[in-house]
Specification:
334 residues; 4-stranded parallel β-sheet; Rossmann fold; 32% helix
Amino acid sequence: MKILRYILFPIMQIYFFATWLRNKLYDLGIKKSISYSFPVICVGNLSVGGTGKTPMIEYLIKLLKDDYKVATLSRGYKRKTKGFQLGNKTSNAESLGDEPFQFYNKFKNDIHVAVDADRNNGIKSLQLIENPPEVVLLDDAFQHRKVKAGFNILLTTYSDPYFSDVVLPTGNLRESRNGAKRANIIIITKCPENLDKATKENILAQIKREPNQHVFFSTITYSNTIVSENTSKIIEGLKAFTLVTGIANATPLIDFLNSKGLKFNHLNFKDHHEFSQQDIDELNKKELIVTTEKDFMRLKDYKSLKDKLFYLPISVSISDDTKIGELIKHFLAN
């Protein structure tokens, strides 16, 4: 794979120029971005792959839902519907996409959850619903520059930071590193616990942040229990099980489970994998299945798996979360 990426280096230069030109046209106002009179917060990244956008959106929901009417707006990747869709009691992973359905399943009594590939149409449609939102959280929209978000949160992983990468197809960046300048907040995600001061200072030096930018470090916190629709189990007491993942990077989860001394067989699928009947038939043979919350959203409607399917909840811990809350609420107040 690495050899192929180097072979594709000439294409990288073309991709770099195309994305640079597109961004320049937006910066100069030749291509138009629409801004809104109410707060729009964008969460995104520069790279392909999992940087932790879903838990970050959930972090923001918890931060804001008690004081504001909140809506999330996602593309709804791999859903089987078109256009604008608003989460309701008939929604599922096929109609909303797995991650938006996860938001709906968890926060349906607190927020609106919507999907639309055209983010401007999605925002306008949200404003027409009964009890419209006061704040819109855009999920994975950092490159969607047709919308001019009032506040941008850029995520990059500790193990594969954008400042050490190059654009596709040689690297993993969707656009050049220079795009990070659009961010109000940069969060280094999936950091080891107790990251030392010297390492943080080294990362800050490589970021070369703008005067108006703030950098935070976050870690993934795994629950001590696995959860099904009806019950839960303490993780330390688990016997051998099957781990099922359809996410961009399962390594942190595997490392956590190994650190607990657990015995499991790992079935690793590509990100947003659509489970076939053959997959389900194979899973029916397993006694206990542990998966991610996102994958649980796609699997939970299979009745044959109901008594054996569990997910491991995760949350995000952010360094100086008081400060990040103050920055976001200051934006909302102004």
